[in-house]
């Protein structure tokens, strides 16, 4: 309830245009900043890449103010698609804050957490028409804004759930060296696996888009799909610390009920990690058995993968 109250308050304050600021980053401008508490800041960024304004939540560690000479590594947390829209929609940049204990969990961690909007069904990519271009928004605009406004260093890790898990791996291979580690929780790192491709197109249609609006047809536009498919570019992930997890789609205690989205994520993830191993690329996996496509498992996976992320962020 406390989280929901804070979310509602933030939305009202941002809508009212409180604390209008500006800062250049490849043409992007910070047009709103709301400080929620001493750890939490929400930024509204007017983005040329998106053609609109999008939000980012930033969490600093509890000792951020007490260590004015220290710079902190960055942990980017990417949201997924659609799970919040069945009841009361939660803005996607607040997904992690609303549904997990990330605020409490990271309070004593020496890391700045960046949780950007990702656009429902946007798939962390430039769309076929060129806009929106979420990839440029995140890897250029948001990155430059964060690094100009917060005391962060150049050591970064990225983790995401569902479509955000895909985004974590896609950004890691398409921007080699930007992230020391990438973690996918119930993601789709092999988008051209038939069940994954069908799921991507179903998500697009359910969100009111055409099934080919993202990258075109997976058959006629195979090159465009492949260019953004982590499975097809595993060699570009060599040297990045990798973590992949998923459940099998079954509810604990109910083997007859299967979550088809988690089952598709599991199949996509397993083919991806099989290929990594075939190519001799290290990967840490947690295929934890029973588990559905839902927040309790992703909250648990953030905690489970923390030692892995901390090591990459040079905190271990």
From TrEMBL:
Keyword Signal among record annotations: yes
GO molecular function annotations of the record: acyltransferase activity, transferring groups other than amino-acyl groups
Signal peptide: 1-23
Keywords associated with the record: Signal
Pfam families in the cross-refs: Esterase
Cited InterPro entries: AB_hydrolase_fold, Esterase-like, Mycobacterial_A85_antigen
Name by which UniProt lists this protein: Esterase
Organism per entry: Amycolatopsis coloradensis
């Amino acid at each position: 309830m406390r989280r929901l109250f804070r979310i509602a308050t933030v939305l009202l304050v941002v809508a009212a245009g409180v604390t209008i600021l500006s800062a250049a980053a490849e043409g992007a401008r910070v047009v709103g900043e709301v400080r929620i508490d001493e750890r939490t800041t929400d930024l509204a960024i007017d983005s040329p890449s998106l053609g609109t304004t999008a939000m980012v939540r930033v969490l600093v560690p509890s000792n951020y103010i007490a260590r004015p000479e220290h710079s902190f590594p960055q942990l980017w947390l990417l949201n997924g698609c659609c799970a919040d829209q069945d009841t009361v929609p939660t803005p996607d940049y607040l997904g992690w804050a609303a549904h997990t204990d990330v605020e409490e969990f990271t309070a004593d961690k020496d890391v700045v957490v960046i949780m950007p909007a990702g656009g429902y069904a946007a798939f962390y990519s430039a769309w076929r028409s060129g806009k929106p271009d979420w990839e440029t928004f995140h890897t250029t605009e948001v990155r430059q804004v964060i690094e100009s406004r917060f005391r962060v260093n150049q050591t970064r890790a990225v983790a995401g759930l569902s479509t955000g898990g895909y985004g974590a791996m896609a950004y890691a291979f398409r921007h080699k060296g930007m992230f020391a580690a990438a973690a996918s929780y119930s993601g789709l790192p092999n988008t051209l696996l038939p069940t994954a491709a069908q799921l991507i197109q179903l998500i697009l249609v359910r969100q009111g888009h055409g099934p080919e609006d993202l990258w075109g047809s997976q058959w006629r536009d195979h090159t465009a799909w492949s260019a953004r498919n982590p499975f097809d570019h595993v060699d570009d992930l060599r040297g990045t610390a990798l973590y992949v997890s998923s459940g099998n789609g079954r509810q604990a205690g109910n083997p007859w009920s299967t979550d088809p989205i988690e089952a598709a994520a599991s199949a996509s993830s397993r083919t991806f990690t099989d290929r990594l191993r075939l190519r001799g690329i290290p990967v840490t996996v947690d295929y934890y058995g029973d588990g559905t496509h839902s927040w309790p498992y992703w909250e648990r996976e953030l905690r489970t993968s923390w030692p892995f992320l901390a090591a990459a962020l040079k905190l271990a």
